[in-house]
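Checklist before submission:
- one chain only
- standard amino acids only
- sequence pasted in full

Submission:
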Amino acid sequence: MKAIGYTHCHPVSHPEALLDLVLPEPAAPQGRELLVEVRAVSVNPVDAKQRAAADPGGRPRLLGFDAAGVVRAAGPDCRLFRPGDAVYYAGAVNRPGSNAELHLVDERIVGPKPASLSFAEAAAMPLTTITAYEALFERLRMPRGESRPGEAVLILGGGGGVASIAIQLARQLTGLTVLATASRPETRDWCLSLGAHHVLDHAGDLPAQVKALGVRVPHVFAIAGTERHWDAICRLLAPFGLACVIDAAAGLDVQKLRPISGGLVFEGMFTRALHRTPDMEEQHRLLAEVAGLIDTGRVRHTMTQHLGRIDAANLKRGHALVESGTMRGKAVLEGF
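Returned file contents:
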């Protein structure tokens, strides 16, 4: 089968940063595994970070943590999907990735592809959807449905892929005021178009901007620039509030949360698959729920760039885009 991988860590500009490969097809699915014919994939920061820092020592390693495709075969214990079903999912960091024509994945972390989306559009969604959903409703314990006048959630780093779905989920499923941050006109407009009530300038004084709006912020979802903004987060967070972090946090002074009895939580969307937790199937459930939101028009896909077919040259372009730090939404590749 055709696949794209790497054998050593290189900068994205290196000619062997990613390689076109021909590999044996995966073994027949076992247990609750699905064998998926991959139709489209997207590029995430984790792809670029792994390529740059996780050296496979000369053996081909396949990346890719987002995919949409069609089930070719199902393991003997599968009960959620059958051959011919269209699916979307984010895979697992400890297994071969989806940048290949065929991919094995546990059905418990797979969702039914939104019927209203193309395979390319669907491939933009899974990893960011799982990350945003788990962060908002499991880590930050945000209330669903009920109106919360004067209470807000602040989403730091509003232009990226995770924020692009987090803004929509917060606006559609909660009664909170949705605040996002951006510094460029195009990302500000993007956040507003997705449903943010207000967009703050993360290059400015965030606590002052929050105070001017007259809202309490018991929930902060820090997607990017957490260390740079940590002091501001601790000053604007409401008493007993929670901050959820997904980027590097080694330099955070958590003692700054003590005066407000605040809390710091982490979101890692691979945790369930990596540790095979008893509630793994929650990722299937949430992907199915969001597929329904998409098909009823309440949430829209976040694909902003189609980079062409799935090959090493185009994947390198995708890696360069996410490494630039200026991505808006998600970049997708389709077909081999």
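Reviewer check: The first helix runs from residue 45 to 53.
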